[in-house]
Amino acid sequence: MSTTAVRGAADSSAAAPAGSLPFHSAATKRIESFGVVGAGLMASQLVLLVAEKLRVPVVISDISANRVADAIKGIRERLSRQEARGRLASGEAAEISALIRGSTNPAEFSACDAAIEAVFEDLRVKRTVFRQLEESVAPDALLLTNTSSLSVESMARGLAHPERVLGFHFFNPVAVLPLLELVRTPFASDDAVLAASVLAARLGKTAVQVADTPGFVVNRILTRIFSEILAEIDRGSDPDAVDRALEPWGLPMTPLNLIGYIGPSVQRHICDTLHRAYPNRFRRSSSLDAVVKAGLPGFFDENGEVRPVARVLPSEPHGTNLEHVRRRVREGLAEEVQLMLDEGVVATSADIDRCMTLGANFPPGGLSHLT
Ligand SMILES: NC(=O)c1ccc[n+]([C@@H]2O[C@H](COP(=O)([O-])OP(=O)(O)OC[C@H]3O[C@@H](n4cnc5c(N)ncnc54)[C@H](O)[C@@H]3O)[C@@H](O)[C@H]2O)c1
User: How far is the CA of 40 from the centre of ligand 1 (A)?
Assistant: First the structure.
């Protein structure tokens, strides 16, 4: 399905000159100016990617002028480092920096042919951002969201031109992980999907088209793993032992380390979204709640020890059977993959494998090779 279509669209763009993107199949509108709303962790990486790959002016905005200034400073430093390491030619860092402009005024986006929002993961905030964007951009400008788990359809609904709103979900770190989940809503036009597919290819990303369902692919699979692991910890199993149970699978990080990397409160937010959608399979976790409530950066302390953190857990840990944990996660994943295929989140289990490999650094073969 989709994946093939996306790749076909991307391939057909190969002849287009750098910095110019066909937008409408029937017209010759090009992406000559790009906007990024939000100046946080993801937005700054997106600005860097777009400026570097498309070489078009990029405006970045935030409600906080300080965050915009910090983001631009950080981007310039990263560009200078890349030039110092020889990854950019001499003078290129300054050339790319000159394309980036900061603002706190949504009206500054009027010239943008495409804009992506990477503000807080809150539907109301994102809807407001899109309403503001729609007041300033042209009716055919592409409007993209980097949401990890929220409904893209809900963001598009009520806009004058919902057909150009798509999910464009990058993965952190953006420069490293090649996956882009391209989320299509029932409103989306084929032209917008084509333009977004071409854009993804120009940004050097592999787009996999996914349905607009909570958590899309990667976060849904990761959260199902977390859900099973956390349920074991909630019932008193030793967190350290449970966390090591999946080591034979060769995943890039243990589940609890990954929760620390994502951030416990961010992950709890994603867990909540999935719990609301599928309460029987994505349960709330008292352990994760305890870690978030205590303001801890994760389940481990700075020495990589889980035990000091275990003091905030609801019960005294006891031993656990690692094969039981692996079986629990394996069965959970098998169930989730089948349900995702039944729901049409993607066409084939190979799409899920591709997403997990390109978006979460799972070993080649994705889930299929976990035994
Ligand atoms: N952090 C990740 O690893 C990751 C990965 C993929 C996708 N995402 C998604 O990307 C989005 C941003 O995540 P993040 O981690 O970069 O967040 P962040 O907290 O680092 O940054 C969010 C920024 O949005 C700004 N903001 C809030 N409301 C705004 C508004 N109305 N207008 C303009 N700016 C506003 C905030 O001031 C802040 O600077 C979220 O939707 C998140 O789910 C995050």
Answer: 5
**3-state class percentages of the chain: helix first, strand second, coil last, to nearest 5:** 50, 10, 40
For residue 126, which atom of ligand 1 is closest to its CA? 31
**Where are the domains positioned within the chain?**
2-211, 218-369
Q: How many helices (H) and strands (E) does the chain have?
A: 15, 8
Query: Would you say the CB of residue 361 lies under 6 angstroms from ligand 1?
Result: no
Q: What is the CATH number of domain 2-211?
A: 3.40.50.720
Q: CA 130, CA 113: separation in Å to the nearest integer?
A: 14
pLDDT band for position 197 (cuts 50, 70, 90)? very high
CATH no. of 218-369: 1.10.1040.50
CA–CA separation, 16 vs 33, rounded Å?
A: 16
* pTM for the model: 0.89
Look up residue 323 and give its amino acid.
E
Distance in Å, CA 44 to ligand 1 centroid: 10
Q: What is the tens place of the pLDDT at every residue in 96-142?
A: 999 999 998 878 899 999 999 999 999 999 999 999 999 999 999 99
Q: Which of 156-170, 225-239, 320-334 has the highest mean pLDDT?
A: 156-170
For 20-55, write each residue's pLDDT tens digit: 344 444 333 589 999 999 999 999 999 999 999 999
167's enclosing H/E stretch is strand 165-169
